[in-house]
Write a sequence for this structure.
């Protein structure tokens, strides 16, 4: 289903934030598709990396709901191959940061029972704290 | 008079089919005087020697060589004629190989009979041949350049530097063309006016260039290395003479002028007075009065400028001046017009005030850094690409080549001046093909200009804010964008300038499918046209950016130099001539000459300018007194040829007389022969320069002498004067068909068909169909023949 969007200041704000966090001029993307074509995890992604770049350029915040940035393993295949020398994985990282900074509490650490906390892997608990530090 | 006939065996190509001894006997039987020789290869040294020796031995003065097509060896035998001390135009070639032996291999007896008639026809024509001299025409140094844009300027300067005398015509009051309107140029962003101004100044300073601004072409006559142009120089209404007081450009006149009109060089974003200097960098830098808006001319109510002028140089009485310019070559540098976006109303141009053309944007951007610019751009600006390009609907299927880059340039300049403006470029494809262009494109993206792949399909205006809402799919994300823009800039495509039409019509220049002038060959003759001595410079040939335009302009200059370096050229003596004893000065022929070579002399008789005459014979029909005729193809000769082509016909036989134009149809029929393609043996092919030469009388005579059908073949000759001559042919046919109607002769017996060089099958099919048709028709009765052509010539 096609979606109608507007080009407005809010979109520009989101775009500029990603540019600032990633250090990459996302609008330079030529949409050649090299990143998506070479991505080893492309089949696990719901939106292709090139599409992520496009949506960011248009300031479409809906990319935050995509799985793609979480599937990205930062293997840098895209980065190595991009003809415009854009670091697509940095853009994915920027998107992860934005998402993390929204500090959505999936799990409240304080409410985890002690017994259960003992069974949990340490990294999982640290991961839950990370949103407060990013 | 003694005629010699040389029958060539062509190493068996002719003699294996045609019994040449039989032909020889026939010729000797008909005419005891004639000398007939058979030789294995007439074109060989031995064959030519035979011709020369026999001519000298018997004192021959007319020669017929029956061999292959004249397009192969006419030159060879004309050479031999010269060696024999004979005039080369006393030679006729009977084309037995291509037109007989090769196509009738399987019917040698019929072929031999046909061969007799072909040789007889050549002999009949040869006997009426007379000596003709090839005049050498001197080539001068004069070149006419039409159009004073960057292309015309560059061509003129190159030519003038090489010593050619250039006349440069510009219809507007200043040089510079479209480039003088541009702000800066891509990809270097150097200012357009700064690059072109020195060149404009160089034109006016050059001793070899005569510049006429405010001047329009009215007509150009000529078709080959000699042209005569009529131009009209519009008045500026300012006296301009060295002897008298001159305009000091004190600007007092401008200050008192009450008129305010959109200024073309500001593309209407700024106004000017009725008395004005076109642009700050105008060349010539002189005032002129726009008579269309000046109140003195509109209603006579104002005289203010003349009153304040301290030099008294304003002259409302100035008249247009007509100039005649004779030149050896013409360079067409008439340039482009931008596509009129009103032709596609969806863009809202002319309806919405915030939709502007690219040229208007050039001026907007040029003024944007000023404190109080004449036009502001707002917060969000859209550039819409491919307006009037790549659009079949409006008839422009081509890419205009420059729009991507100029939009990127305008966007970049705007972004540099106003970084806070959001700029979007809506494109179909970005074509950044030139040197440094792709890099420039990338830099514009770095600046923050957003490129969205999609062509806006809805343009609506917000009534209160006058913003324009664009609806467009981003075809990369498949999202539909619907957003208000404060300014929408259309990337208008390029079209051939409308003012080129008069040049196209008078020089008979061809246009390609895209509407621009057609080059002689797209690969290796990109600046030549099909008219010898006419060259193309700049965007008149097709959309180009400035570097390509300048390169092509210099190429055009180089081609002119190479052409004029010949110093002289031989004039084909096959030209029309007027018998002034018969001519009564009715002037009917004047309108029937495609290159306008006929004029009336002091004695009131028609006179033919040999340098302009094309030798098509189109004029002959128009003369009611038959005072005009054509060298080497006189009416008398063609009557004789027709009669000889039909004189062996018996009651059971059929004949189709084919008149073929020398350049296309005749060669095409040759090509059928070379490929041994069989077609009806009814055909007798006669060569003419253009079938427009075949007047109704000749066609009627052919039927009276026994032709069952007449087939006229000519080239559509698009883009040459011959195209025009075809109209004469059509009129001639109409005249004959009217007579046919009265006499109840089947109109199918007369065919006019147009061929290109590759239409071999078309010719074969048409001639065979015609043969089938006349097989079914009753022969024309003697009585009707007599009515058709009563006075037997």
């Amino acid at each position: 289903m096609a979606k109608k969007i507007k080009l407005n200041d809010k979109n520009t704000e989101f775009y500029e934030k990603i540019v600032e966090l990633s250090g990459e001029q996302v609008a330079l993307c030529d949409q050649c598709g090299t990143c998506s074509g070479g991505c080893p995890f492309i089949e696990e992604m719901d939106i292709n990396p090139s599409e992520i770049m496009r949506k960011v350029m248009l300031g479409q915040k809906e990319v935050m709901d995509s799985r793609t940035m979480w599937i990205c393993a930062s293997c840098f295949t895209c980065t190595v191959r991009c003809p415009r020398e854009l670091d697509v994985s940095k853009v994915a990282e920027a998107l992860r940061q934005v998402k993390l900074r929204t500090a959505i509490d999936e799990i409240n650490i304080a409410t985890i029972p002690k017994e259960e906390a003992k069974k949990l892997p340490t990294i999982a608990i640290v991961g839950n704290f990370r949103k407060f530090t990013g | 008079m003694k005629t010699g006939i040389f029958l060539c065996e062509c190493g068996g190509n002719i003699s294996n089919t045609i019994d040449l001894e039989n032909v020889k006997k026939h010729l000797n039987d008909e005419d005891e005087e004639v000398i007939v020789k058979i030789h294995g290869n007439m074109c060989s040294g031995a064959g030519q020697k035979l011709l020369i020796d026999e001519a000298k031995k018997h004192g021959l003065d007319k020669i017929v060589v029956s061999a292959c097509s004249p397009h192969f060896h006419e030159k060879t035998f004309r050479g031999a004629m010269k060696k024999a001390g004979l005039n080369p135009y006393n030679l006729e070639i009977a084309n037995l190989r291509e037109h007989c032996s090769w196509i009738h291999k399987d019917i040698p007896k019929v072929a031999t009979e046909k061969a007799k008639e072909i040789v007889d026809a050549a002999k009949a024509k040869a006997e009426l041949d007379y000596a003709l001299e090839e005049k050498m025409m001197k080539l001068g140094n004069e070149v006419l350049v039409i159009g004073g844009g960057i292309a015309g300027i560059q061509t003129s300067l190159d030519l003038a530097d090489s010593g050619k005398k250039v006349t440069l015509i510009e219809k507007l009051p200043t040089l510079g063309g479209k480039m003088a309107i541009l702000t800066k140029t891509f990809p270097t962003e150097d200012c357009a006016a700064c690059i072109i101004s020195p060149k404009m100044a160089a034109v006016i300073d050059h001793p070899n260039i005569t510049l006429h601004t405010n001047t329009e072409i009215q007509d150009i006559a000529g078709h080959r290395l000699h042209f005569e142009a009529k131009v009209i120089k519009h008045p500026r209404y300012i006296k301009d003479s060295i002897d008298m007081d001159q305009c000091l450009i004190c600007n007092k006149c401008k200050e008192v002028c009450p008129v305010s009109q959109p200024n073309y060089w500001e593309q209407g974003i700024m106004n000017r007075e009725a008395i004005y200097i076109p642009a700050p960098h105008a060349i010539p830098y002189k005032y002129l009065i726009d008579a269309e808006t000046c109140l003195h001319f509109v209603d006579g109510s104002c005289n203010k400028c003349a009153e304040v002028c301290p030099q008294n140089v304003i002259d409302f009485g100035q008249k247009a001046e007509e100039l005649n310019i004779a030149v050896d070559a013409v360079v067409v540098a008439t340039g482009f017009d931008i596509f009129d976006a009103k032709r596609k109303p969806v863009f809202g141009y002319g309806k919405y005030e915030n939709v502007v053309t690219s040229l208007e944007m050039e001026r907007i951007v040029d003024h944007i850094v000023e404190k109080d610019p004449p036009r502001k751009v707002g917060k969000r600006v859209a550039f819409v690409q491919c307006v009037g390009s790549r659009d079949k609907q409006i008839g422009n299927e081509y890419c205009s080549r420059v729009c991507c880059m100029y939009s990127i340039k305008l966007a970049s300049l705007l972004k540099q001046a106003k970084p806070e403006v959001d700029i979007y470029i809506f494109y179909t494809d970005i074509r950044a093909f030139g040197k440094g262009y792709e890099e420039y494109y990338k830099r514009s993206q770095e600046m923050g200009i957003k490129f969205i792949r999609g062509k806006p399909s809805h343009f609506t205006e917000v009534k209160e804010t006058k913003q324009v809402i664009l609806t467009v799919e981003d075809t990369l994300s498949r999202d539909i964008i619907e957003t208000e823009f404060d300014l929408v800039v259309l990337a208008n495509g390029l079209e051939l300038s409308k003012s080129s039409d008069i040049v196209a019509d008078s020089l008979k220049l061809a246009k390609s499918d895209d509407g621009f002038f057609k080059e002689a060959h797209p690969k290796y003759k990109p600046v030549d046209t099909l008219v010898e001595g006419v060259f193309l410079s700049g965007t008149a040939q097709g959309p180009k950016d400035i570097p390509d335009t300048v390169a092509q302009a210099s190429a055009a200059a180089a081609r002119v130099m190479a052409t004029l370096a010949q110093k002289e050229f031989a004039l084909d003596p096959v030209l029309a001539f007027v018998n002034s004893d018969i001519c009564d000065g009715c002037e009917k022929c004047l309108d029937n000459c495609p290159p306008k070579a006929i004029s009336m002399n002091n004695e009131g008789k028609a006179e033919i300018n040999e340098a302009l005459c094309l030798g098509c014979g189109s004029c002959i029909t128009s003369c009611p007194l038959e005072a005009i005729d054509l060298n080497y193809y006189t009416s008398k000769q063609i009557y004789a040829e027709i009669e000889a082509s039909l004189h062996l016909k018996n009651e059971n036989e059929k004949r189709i007389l084919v008149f073929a134009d020398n350049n296309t149809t005749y060669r095409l029929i040759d090509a059928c022969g070379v490929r041994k393609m069989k077609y009806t043996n009814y055909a007798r092919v006669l060569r003419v320069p253009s079938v427009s030469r075949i007047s109704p009388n000749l066609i009627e005579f052919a039927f009276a002498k026994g032709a069952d059908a007449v087939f006229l073949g000519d080239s559509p000759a698009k883009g040459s004067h011959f195209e025009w001559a075809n109209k004469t042919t059509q009129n001639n046919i109409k005249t004959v068909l009217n007579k046919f109607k009265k006499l109840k002769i089947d109109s199918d017996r007369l065919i006019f068909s147009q061929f290109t060089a590759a239409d071999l099958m078309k010719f074969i099919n048409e001639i065979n169909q015609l043969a089938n048709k006349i097989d079914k028709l009753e022969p024309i009765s003697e009585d009707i023949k007599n009515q058709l052509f009563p006075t037997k010539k």
In short: Chain B has six domains: 1-134, 137-234+320-335+508-567, 236-318, 338-495, 571-608, 633-793. The interface with chain A takes residues 380, 422, 424, 442, 445-446, 448-453, 473-474, 476-483 of chain B (CB under 8 Å). The first strand of chain B starts at residue 3 and ends at 8. Residues 100 and 114 of chain B are 7 Å apart (CA to CA).
